[in-house]
Amino acid sequence: MFEQMLRHTQLLEIVGDTIRVRAKDVAFGDVALVENVDGETSIARVVELNRDIVSLQVFAGGKGLSTDATVQFLNRPLDVTYSENILGRIFRGSGEPIDGGPDLTGDPKIKAGGPTVNPMMRILASKMIQTNVPMIDLFNCLVESQKIPIFSVAGEPYNELLARIGFQADADIVVFGGLGLIFDDYHFFRTVFEEHGIFHRTVMFVNQASDPIVERMLVPDMALAVAERFAVEKNQRVLVLLTDMTAYADAMKEIGIALERVPATRGYLGDLYTQLARRYEKACDFKGAGSVTILTVTTMPGNDVTHPVPDNTGYITEGQFYLHDGIIDPFGSLSRLKQRVIGKATREDHGQIMNTMIRFYANAQEAEKKEAMAFELSPFDQKCLKFGRLFRERFMDIRVSIPVLEALDLCWKTLAECFEPQELLMKQTLIDKYLPKGESGAKKE
Fold first, then answer.
1. Where in the sequence is the domain holding 419, given as residue range(s)?
2. Helix (H) or strand (E) holding 174
3. Burial, 297: exposed, middle or buried (Cβ in 10 Å; 0-12, 13-18, 19+)?
4. 5 membership: H or E segment, kind and range
5. 53-80 per-position pLDDT tens digit
6. CA dihedral sign of residues 24, 29, 31, 35
7. Whether residue 56 is found in the same domain as residue 122
8. Is this structure's pTM higher than 0.70?
9. Which tens digit of pLDDT belongs to each residue from 169-201?
10. Nearest-angstrom CA–CA distance, 46 and 26
């Protein structure tokens, strides 16, 4: 097959992992085979077209490559294996299996990338994905077809949180994409998914930090292409987990520098927003089929939310989970779709409980400031301090795992332990129905 295709000889330039060759009738994103003078062959991908000058990113890197190498264009974009046989398998960014499992050569392949879904084929988000993480399920619900990032900084347990949501969420299939992971993180995700019994319904695409940077650019496209097919053809509720999108943006920047493109803010390319949006907008609840929900990690260098990556991400996505100091911050987090499911897909008291708990936690923080400055505390301040301690212990730790109905009951129990019924300022019908009897906020600890 490949022998019948035109071979282009004499590379014009080799810059890092990028090579340039003169060729015609080549499309952006096409795949090519690069054969060195010693006979070694590697895959490359077209990343820039300038009239008849074609720039390609070589997966194996440009080290040791000669200008006498030959380039053979395959006249097709990169594809990815798609069938039920890929469940429980691990692939690298080039689409090749790396888990030593059965050969998948004969399985069908689909194009990685492509346009987003026609808006006419989308339906409005109305179904909740329960994660058993109370700070998400109670205060910022994850909704099917939502696209939402976890904003955090290096050193925070964001991968632990992402993995926990992955194995606790009530999704049919989990598609994981690792971008520039160190081996320990890759091994952590694989081990966690295996130990919690979801590996058989998980597909992993992993680009490690030591792998070619161009593969990092392909992981989201492969993960989302597979997720979309499972949702459309198999009617599956698919949860896509991607970490870390800042590493993805940095890979784009590095390739842009090699291609001598004019940089924009902080060295990132001017199309950063477009490239991120093309991936995030793959989230969809398909009419008459399944859904794709996208949850990512976006690390903020220097904890700077105005950094180009989180800043652009915020304009695209429907909120964020803000993780710091090992907890999900209830004030920095936001799910813009939560109102579509609270009290509809959940219990009638959910909305009132959410607002009341956050109101009392804000009061607790004010009481803590007064205590730190040695101001006199009122009896109500003392109740708020007790509530704040219980709230952090029972709900804010990311290791806490409670089904949403049990979490709602625990909220009522916590309120009853700290406050009198008249202090709750909630609907009396809900207080009469759900507040545990025999508890009193007047009791001392």
1. 350-434
2. strand 173-181
3. buried
4. none
5. 999 988 877 788 888 889 999 888 888 9
6. positive
7. no
8. yes
9. 999 999 999 999 999 999 999 999 999 999 999
10. 8
